[in-house]
Amino acid sequence: MAKPSLVSCLKEVELKLKKFTRRPKKSAATAATPEIYNTELEVWFLATPKQRRLHKEGFSFSDQPHHIQKRIWKFIWDKSKVFEVKTQALFYYQSRRSNDDFERYWNELKTYVGGIENWAHSDVYSDCLSRILEANPAKVLPTLEKWNSSTNPWKRRQSLVSLFYYQSMRKKYPPKTKVLKFIKNLIEDEHYYVQKGIGWTLRESIQVYPKETYAFIDKNLEKLSSIAFTTVMEKVPNKRKELYKKQRAHARAFARSGSTRTVKI
């Protein structure tokens, strides 16, 4: 089987997807559609289900062995300036669900992190990393710990969201001490999507380590940003949620008045 040209593979993927490019009518609601992803990439407005169908249909190189495909997809990931085309490279790994040894992709996948610059790619990437973390935490956790203090906000986000992605998809979980340590380190982070990651991770951690996670929230309730707080409250029972809201409201009121009085609900 002849080894395909990397450039020709990139062009093939771009041409296949470009045929389905659609431009929504300009309006106040659609004029800023690329900002939905907060991306600097060109966006072709392909719906995710359509992108997945195109990937499943395959390309001329889809029957190539993995050691060749990994080079092709990394080239596409590094060189393409199109949101949907780069997404196909992530789908390649995400779709390999039948492999029992998914962890062997770690050395390849961890090099993708430098190209993450939007939440949609970040979330697909987190799905992949969470599976490798589950299979081999000793291999992945040291890197996530480094990313936790990175100057790159998308690495910091990965250090959180990759811990569970969705806990319902995991059979084994990272240690609660690591989970809460990573969150605490970033609790005052100024990046919007890191704060979303904090809320997401706390939300999932509640389902796994409820006692320890609620204790963490109790202790850090006033430090949680509105972004993180809103996200984590999605999985908090209504009664507890209302108490938290009241406590935060009281704290804000006393902060405005300059009082140091402690409020107990």
What does this structure look like?
The protein contains 13 helices and no strands. By secondary structure, it is mostly helical. The chain has a domain at 133-265: Alpha Horseshoe (Leucine-rich Repeat Variant), CATH 1.25.10.90. The relative contact order is 0.07. The model is unreliable at 28-32 and 261-265 (pLDDT under 50).
List keywords for this structure.
265 residues, 59% helix, elongated, Leucine-rich Repeat Variant
Number of strands: 0
Number of discrete helical segments? 13
Q: Strand count, sense and closure of the main sheet? A: none
What CATH calls the topology of the domain at 133-265 is Leucine-rich Repeat Variant
Q: Shape from CA axes?
A: elongated
Content of β-strand: under 5%
Report Rg.
Answer: 21 Å
Secondary-structure map with pairings?
Blueprint: H1 6-18, H2 48-57, H3 66-79, H4 83-94, H5 106-109, H6 119-135, H7 137-148, H8 153-161, H9 176-186, H10 192-208, H11 210-220, H12 226-232, H13 238-257
Give a quick rundown of the structure.
This protein has helices spanning 6-18, 48-57, 66-79, 83-94, 106-109, 119-135, 137-148, 153-161, 176-186, 192-208, 210-220, 226-232, 238-257. The protein is mostly helical and 265 residues long. It has a domain at 133-265: Leucine-rich Repeat Variant.
